[in-house]
Structure formats: C-alpha cells, structure tokens
Amino acid sequence: MQFIKNTSSGKVSIIGLVIKSIIGLGVILGIIFFLSTIDFPAPKKEIEKIIPNENFKIVK
C-alpha cells in the first residue's frame, strides 16, 4: 500500500488570498491608528543657538 501525499503546492485559493490580504491590511491600519493616538513628547519651544562669527576660520 502506497501513501499519497496531498500537498497544496500549486493550488492557490483566490478567496483565501483575498481574506489574508484584507486581514493584513486591517492589521496595518490598526497599527497606524494606534500609533497616531499616542502622544509622544515634543519640545515646547524652538531650540535656537547663536554661533558667533569669531569661531569660523577660512580654509583654502
């Protein structure tokens, strides 16, 4: 008696592919929505540093 190995190679179900892509898209959109609700810390004022012209040297 021989065993017959049934594999699904070459048999791609279009319905299964559509369902997997919809689930993947939903997960990606859920992650984006979740990250947009998080309030990340940001500086309150603009940081500005004045560099005096004395420190610059001309290099030729």
Please indicate the percent range of residues in DSSP E strands (runs of 2 or more).
under 5%
The residue-averaged pLDDT reads 80
Name the poorly predicted regions.
Answer: none
Count of individual domains: 1
Helix content estimate: 40-55%
Oligomeric composition of the shown chains: single chain
* Sheet with the most strands, sense and barrel status: none
Provide the succession of SSEs: H
Secondary structural class: mainly alpha
Number of helices: 1
Radius of gyration: 29 Å
Would you give an account of this structure?
This protein is mainly α. The chain has one domain. The protein has one helix at residues 14-37. It is elongated and about 90 Å long.
Summarize the structure.
By secondary structure, the chain is mainly α.
Which descriptors would you attach to this protein?
elongated, 60 residues, 1 helix, mainly alpha
Secondary-structure map:
Elements: H1 14-37
